[in-house]
């Protein structure tokens, strides 16, 4: 089953400018920045109370984030949920009729296994599943 919301992902054109905006908005600096080479993005993470916000900026014009911004503009890109067993959740959600974009989880930001559910099967919202990678 899906757990709590892990973070909200926000697509941005300029990570430095977006960081400045969210620093002013939230009254704090990002606690982590990380490049995710496989997705051609660089991220910044902010805490907002118990919640997290991930800003995502493209590092390559062919990345999913660059294409998203070109089509829809900056804004909320995805909602991520914690899961205890990402493989079991992928199987469960596929049986429920959701379109799975990643049949196998991949390494994402913040030391997590991640996989995505196509927005066409979840009322227009890209859903990310996140599971901590055991160290």
Write up this protein.
This protein is of the alpha+beta class and 135 residues long. The chain contains three helices and eight strands. The chain has helices at 15-26, 64-72, 86-95; strands spanning 5-12, 32-36, 41-48, 51-58, 75-82, 106-108, 112-117, 126-132. An eight-stranded mixed sheet has the order 2-3-4-1-5-8-7-6. The longest helix is centred in the N-terminal third of the chain and has 12 residues, at 15-26. The protein is globular and about 40 Å long. The model has no long low-confidence stretch (mean pLDDT 94). InterPro entries: Glyas_Bleomycin-R_OHBP_Dase, MeMalonyl-CoA_epimerase, MMCE/EMCE_epimerase, VOC_core. Belongs to the methylmalonyl-CoA epimerase family.
Brief digest:
The chain has 135 residues and is of the alpha+beta class. Helix content is 23%, strand content 39%. It comes from Nonlabens mediterrranea.
Overall structural class, as computed from helix and strand content, comes to alpha+beta
Which bin fits the share of residues in helices? 10-25%
Overall pLDDT metric: 94
* Rg from Cα: 15 Å
The total strand number stands at: 8
Strand content: 35-45%
Query: What's the SSE pattern?
Result: EHEEEHEHEEE
Name the shape in a single word: globular
In whole angstroms, how far apart are the ends? Answer: 23 Å
What is the topology, as strand order, of the major beta sheet? 2-3-4-1-5-8-7-6
Please outline the major beta sheet.
Answer: 8 strands, mixed
- Determine the number of helices (DSSP H or I, runs of at least 4 residues): 3
Uncertain residue ranges? none
InterPro entries: Glyas_Bleomycin-R_OHBP_Dase, MeMalonyl-CoA_epimerase, MMCE/EMCE_epimerase, VOC_core
Protein name: Methylmalonyl-CoA epimerase
GO molecular function: methylmalonyl-CoA epimerase activity
Family: Belongs to the methylmalonyl-CoA epimerase family.
């Amino acid at each position: 089953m899906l757990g709590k919301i892990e973070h909200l992902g926000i697509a941005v054109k300029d990570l430095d400018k977006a960081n400045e905006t969210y620093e002013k908005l939230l009254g704090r600096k990002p606690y982590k920045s990380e490049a995710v080479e496989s997705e051609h993005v660089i991220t910044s993470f902010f805490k907002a109370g118990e919640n997290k916000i991930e800003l995502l900026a493209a590092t390559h014009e062919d990345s999913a984030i660059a294409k998203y911004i070109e089509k829809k503009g900056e804004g909320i890109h995805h909602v991520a949920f914690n899961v205890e067993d990402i493989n079991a959740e992928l199987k469960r959600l596929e049986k429920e009729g959701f379109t799975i974009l990643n049949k196998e989880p991949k390494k994402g930001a913040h030391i997590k296994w991640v996989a995505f559910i196509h927005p066409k099967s979840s009322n227009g919202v890209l859903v990310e599943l996140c599971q901590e990678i055991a160290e």
